[in-house]
Design brief:
By secondary structure, the chain is mostly helical. The chain is about 85% helix and about 0% strand. Helix 2 (about 20-45) crosses helix 9, helix 5 crosses helix 8 (about 155-175) and helix 8 (about 155-175) packs antiparallel against helix 10 (about 200-215).
Length: about 220
């Protein structure tokens, strides 16, 4: 299966389940953006950006975990309710937040050295969240499993990720309003975050494909 077919499958799934995904994730994305605004107002213009990153790490598992569970359930023909998915995701939050923190630090460290090491780390850790949620692994075991799974598959994973994230990052940079326009900023950040969740859907499709290949080997 080529990266183009993976992207196409993920697009079809997203289109067919758009309302369900939006109802599951958008309220929390709006809450996260609102919290970012309140934090910025509290800390002032000269605040350390690390506070915003930390807030994102705390919020991200609250909607990413349920989304992964939703993707897995739908791929098995199941249709759990949002309350069930959110409750299950909340149970995973401590481990997921720790994993998100470790991954973010590793990627930022790689980017601080040069862009290429940061991209390499991002690709090698791409499946860690999926392993943690779907296989109920610890953060360290999930990181190790992702590194193992991406061995020899760097370019397909990178192609899929950049095909999704590069245009969305550019769009976000071009459309982000000034922080003084609070309502518009919250809306833009919520929509941007929602669109970037498509990368997680693409990674889920790749993850399931690679797992199937491993099981057949």
């Amino acid at each position: 299966m080529t990266p183009l077919s993976v992207l196409r499958d993920a697009w079809y799934f997203s289109r067919n389940n758009l309302l369900a995904i939006a109802s599951l994730t958008l309220p929390l994305l709006v809450l996260e953006a609102t919290a970012q605004v309140l934090l910025a107002a509290q800390l002032g213009a000269g605040a350390n950006p690390a506070y915003g990153i930390l807030l994102g790490i705390l919020f991200y598992p609250l909607y990413a975990g349920p989304l992964i569970l939703f993707l897995h359930a739908r791929s098995n023909g199941q249709a759990p309710g949002n309350a069930q998915l959110l409750a299950a995701g909340l149970q995973l939050w401590p481990r997921f937040a720790l994993l998100a923190g470790i991954s973010t630090l590793a990627i930022m460290l790689g980017l601080s050295l040069m862009i290429v090491p940061g991209i390499w780390v991002m690709v090698r850790l791409a499946f860690a969240e999926l392993v943690l949620v779907l296989h109920q692994e610890t953060p360290l075991r999930a990181l190790q499993a992702s590194v193992t799974m991406t061995a020899g598959r760097f370019w397909p994973v990178l192609t899929c990720l950049l095909s999704v994230l590069a245009p969305l990052w550019l769009l976000d940079a071009l459309t982000t309003p000034p922080p003084s326009q609070t309502l518009l900023w919250v809306i833009q950040q919520s929509v941007s975050g929602f669109l970037q969740l498509f990368a997680l859907i693409v990674l889920f499709r790749l993850f399931m494909l690679f797992e199937t290949q491993q099981n057949r080997a």
